[in-house]
Specification:
353 residues; alpha/beta; Isopropylmalate Dehydrogenase; 2 domains; two-stranded antiparallel sheet; 22% strand; binds adenosine-5'-triphosphate; binds magnesium ion
């Protein structure tokens, strides 16, 4: 029996509702597999914790998390009550940085049973791999001068190490997919950072002769996501470009309520963190109507990362069969409750086993 110690942080709003649903699915996956045992340890960190303790997590929180294999997170945020820089900065960003989760992975796939907002969508299956630690979102810069000459400088930081790491990850996952990696660039506008990014991509690609590589300017690539997403396989991008592309990817899938994500420490020195794209959705929290699919698909990504790709695909099968039979929550135009959706996903997984 392979035991896995997982830290669970449900967080705020619908995070507290959808996380237990996804844990039921993971328990079902473990049962079907027969050789996996999960040990869940739940931490009540987030904005409610902040309102009581004036901190989003205890001061030894990061050290505590280091003793787990992976982190499974719902959502954090209480708009209006806790400012974003506290809720995000005090938990999510802190974990991502201190546990060196430098790669953000977001699938954009048209699931069976989903309707894309694109007019004539062919099925598509893209994996956006985003550099998550540096690039355009660095803290280097500032404001200079006053009055009419005032200006702001924002410096991007691109290191060969971080660029190569995210590119190597993208190229190696492409080997288990359709063997094509598209790199997002803008070397015709950003004179220093992007030619460097392109050089590193060319260098790193040498070691993957079996992978077809393409570099595309971010503007043309964003248009391609909307016009012909089916031609794309793996897309590797810097922090800013990856942020934008993964949001477009989420949009063309049909609903933010289904979009999954992972923040990976690919060296496996520290735990990685699996959290859906959506936030705490205070407008629908506590009503039992949140779509659990984003969290469940995120659980599937955790299974993949733990090396259980076969059982992970059974989870995705359960999700798709549920969508095909039209058991959908309100965000997808249906009238099913959150638990009804989870129950159908589990029933389909069991039927397939
Ligand atoms: P954050 O700043 O934490 O990312 P946000 O304000 O960007 O949050 P969300 O909390 O994701 O956004 O909510 C955006 C909209 O999508 C809301 O109307 C919310 O109800 C809806 N939504 C988000 N997640 C889900 C879900 N799982 N099921 C149904 N609706 C959802
Ligand atoms: Mg948001």
């Amino acid at each position: 029996m392979n035991k896995h110690a997982i830290a669970v942080i449900p967080g705020d709003g619908i995070g507290q509702e959808v996380v237990p649903e996804a844990l039921k699915v993971l328990e079902t996956a473990a049962q079907i597999h027969g050789g996996i045992a999960f040990e869940w340890t739940t931490f009540p960190w987030g904005c409610e914790y902040y309102l009581q303790h004036e901190t989003m997590m205890p001061s030894d929180g990061i050290e505590t998390l280091k003793s787990f294999e992976q982190i499974f997170l719902g959502a954090v945020g209480m708009p209006g009550l806790v400012p974003d820089h506290i809720s995000l900065g005090g938990l999510l960003l802190k974990i991502r940085q201190e546990l060196e989760q430098s790669i953000n992975v977001r699938p954009a796939k048209l699931l069976c049973g989903m309707k894309s907002p694109l007019a004539d969508p062919q099925s598509f299956d893209i994996l956006v791999v985003r550099e998550n630690s540096e690039g355009e979102y660095s803290d280097v810069g500032g404001r200079v001068h006053n009055g009419p000459d005032e200006m702001a400088l924002q410096t991007s930081v691109f290191t060969r190490k971080a660029c190569a790491r995210v590119m190597e990850y993208a190229l190696s996952v492409a080997q288990r997919r359709r063997r094509h990696v598209t790199s997002a660039t803008k070397s015709n506008g950003l004179a220093h950072s992007m030619p460097f990014w392109d050089d590193v991509f060319r260098d790193v690609s040498q070691a993957y002769p079996d992978i077809q590589t393409t570099s595309m300017h971010i503007d043309a690539l964003a248009a391609l996501f909307v016009m012909k997403p089916h031609v794309l396989d793996v897309v590797v991008a810097s922090n800013l470009f990856g942020d934008i592309l993964s949001d477009i990817g989420g949009a063309i899938m049909g609903s933010i309520g289904i979009a999954p994500a992972a923040n990976l420490n690919v060296e496996r020195k520290y735990p990685s963190m699996f959290e859906p794209v959506h936030g705490s959705a205070p407008d629908i929290a506590g009503k039992g109507i949140a779509n659990p699919i984003g969290q469940i698909w995120t659980a599937k990504m955790m299974l993949d990362f733990l090396g259980y790709e076969d059982i992970a695909s059974v989870v995705l099968y359960g999700i798709e069969e549920t969508l095909v039979e039209n058991v959908k929550t309100a965000d997808l135009g249906g009238s099913a409750t959150m638990t009804e959706v989870t129950e159908r996903v589990i029933a389909h997984m069991k039927a397939a086993a």
